[in-house]
Write a structure and sequence with these properties.
This protein is an alpha/beta fold. 38% of the residues lie in helices and 24% in strands. Strand 7, helix 6 and strand 8 form a beta-alpha-beta unit. The chain binds adenosine-5'-diphosphate (ADP) and magnesium ion.
């Protein structure tokens, strides 16, 4: 599981995250939604230990990213919004390098990556230099790298952006299979349809503040000020646009679990 506890983060005086808190249960498929500049990437970078929060903490499978960062990082796999790879390595060399870092035993390596390579149809590329890969192929090899040490938590920043429909489908199928095995999947996305279809719960942020958290149904029900019948017909897109219309200025609407 994943717990974000009162996280605030500023960049040179600009407050990008304000007192952000939420919990993601084990085995959940959890979407993190917000308009451009809302603070999604900053949050994910705090969760991975790339950025240190000004205040607050995050527990990655119960381990504090602030107080015990190395152990917390062992518990998570991270897919950045833009792939960051060593382009002069082949896919195979890169995955072996990542599995060296995470101390995956040689006898287990093949089993860890074989299914993912097949699901993403990476076979024809895996022994070519990464510099020759398309953006989509780079995202896929990054995803295999994020999963290859079998972390209990996956932190994925815009995993489906820039992918063709077949690759989006492969991502969705792999993420579903992961959650079925108990992995906690936390991902940011702009594609509200993907979130609505495959997620158990969502968090919506605007202007660095949490504006809604819960299942889509819970958020729909708890929206203040509108009549029930009207809310029942709302899609996630309607809710998202309404809650983020003023870039997070709205009153907080948090559904109870
Ligand atoms: N390195 C940085 N320096 C200064 N401001 C930043 C930096 N990174 C992000 N920001 C600002 O913080 C806010 C949140 O950015 P980000 O977390 O990237 O949002 P999102 O991923 O939701 O689009 C934005 O206003 C962005 O301009
Ligand atoms: Mg971002």
């Amino acid at each position: 599981m994943l717990e974000v506890i009162s996280v605030s983060k500023s960049y040179s005086g600009f407050k990008a995250l304000s007192d952000l808190s939420f919990k993601v249960g084990r085995g959940s498929m959890y979407a993190f939604l917000g308009p451009n500049g809302a603070g999604k990437t900053t949050t994910i970078k705090v969760l991975t230990g790339i950025l240190t929060p000004d205040s607050g903490d995050a527990l990655i499978n119960g381990v504090s990213i602030v107080n015990d960062p190395v152990r917390a990082k062992r518990n998570c796999g991270y897919l950045p919004d833009t792939p960051m790879l060593f382009e002069k390595l082949t896919g195979t060399q890169y995955l072996n390098f990542i599995m060296d870092i995470f101390e995956v035993h040689a006898s287990e390596r093949r089993g860890r990556i074989e299914k993912l390579i097949e699901a993403f149809e990476l076979g024809p590329h895996i022994n070519s230099l990464i510099e020759s890969y398309s953006l989509g192929t780079k995202k896929k090899i990054s995803m295999v790298a994020a999963c290859c040490h079998r972390p209990p938590v996956l932190l994925l920043d815009e995993p489906t952006s820039g992918l063709d429909p077949q690759s989006v489908r492969a991502f969705k199928d792999i993420l579903k299979a992961m959650t079925a095995e108990g992995v906690t999947v936390f991902f940011s996305t702009h594609i509200l349809e993907v979130a609505e279809k495959i997620c158990d719960r969502v968090a919506i942020i605007g202007g660095g503040r949490l504006v809604a958290e819960g299942s889509v149904d819970e958020i729909r029900r708890s929206l203040a000020g509108a009549n029930r019948e009207d809310n029942n017909s709302k899609t996630l897109e309607d809710i998202f646009l309404e809650l983020t219309a003023k870039n997070g200025d709205r009153q907080e609407v948090c559904a109870t679990a």
